[in-house]
Amino acid sequence: MSRGDWQSYIPRIEQLARGLGLEFHPVEFEAVPDAFMMEIAVYGLPVRMPHWSFGVRYIYQLIQRHMGHSRLFEVVFPGNPGHAYLAAGNGLAENILVTAHVLGHADFSRNNLLFQRCQTQVSERIVEHAAQHARQIQQAIETHGLECVEAVLDAALALEQHIDVDQPLRRPRFPEYAEPPKALADDEFRRRFAALEPGTAGAALASRQRAPLPPHPERDLLWFVAQYAPEMESWERDIFLAVREESFYFYPVFATQIMNEGWASYWHARLLREADFIAQQAYLDAIKCHSDVVRPVAADEEVALSLNPYHLGFALWEHIVAQEGLEAAFAIRAQDDDFAFIRNHLTRELAAELGLFRYRARDGKIRVLEQDVDALHEAILAPKYNFGAPTVLVRRVHTDGTLELGHDHALDRRGLDLERSRKVLEYVQRVWRRPVRLATVDQDGAEREISAP
Question: How many Cβ atoms from other residues are within 10 Å of residue 3's Cβ?
């Protein structure tokens, strides 16, 4: 396959997609070597801040590929323009399918409200924005040394999932003083106080109570450390806020994975069916590739957590379009995330049809273990709560600067790996520069407290 053969299909597939109602920003397609594909998949962006943890992820991805567990056909970065990187080793049919798949992603990210909200706050030109962050960090390395910068990145990337997307990206600091109690308008004391000499009133204002820090439990750990670490330098704060910005960009991808991959799979299948300009053999090869992408995962005993998001998302979108029509599907694509999508549209009947309930196969006999659709929903969605991270909140900053954290284990119903948690606390303590404590439970549910130093 020549590069020109594949690229000649792009404008025709784009025209067909728009004719069927898809709306998307321009997408820049580029074929790249497999090694570069793996790098950008691991880093999450074509150019990103350097850190050793990405090397660990790269090795894991490489092992998975050599074992035959994963293959990267494309990596997509939503934005305006969007960027799509296709593996140079793809065949013509694979690239035709991937082009249609990418346009499904581009329509989803342009029209989904969660994507719109996060991209508006961060940047629609995330690739260039991330490159700017990388240059900023390289300058910090040249000024302060690799060891100092890496210590800050250790802490920031350890907390990269601990953001609060319900708060704006650029949020103000907490008020320094507590709000005075509100008095009634006809309060006699209030009228007399207002009539006091200015100096007397000023003395009363000087004795205002400082607000507790934080005034309420705070779950945006990246923001809180950047704003309130007692001795954090401005360049360290900038690194924390850069990691937080990129986490805001990645969150919609994480929170809509089943919807987004299913939507892209639905549209690549539909576009292939309706693209009469594709040669028959290329079409047949592309459909075989589609079948490989959306096949379910099966083993001796399966639970929802090991299913293929492409398979589940594709099946749900096909069912929605068949039952409710394309306009309803467009509205759902705009409004939902995976939580609403699964709870509203994965019915008991569809789950049974897809074989999603827990079952056990033994001696040639299959026995269903449970048919509780609500439990199935929670099993699928549990890893998605709080960006996939434990719910850890800032409870209090003590007068000596000690940072007190609390794990809301009743909310996320999971214990922590104490060794990993202790390592994260050590990273955080290096930039907080005061003691850090965390109240949690272990994996057996027993209450524990860990601290650094």
Answer: 11
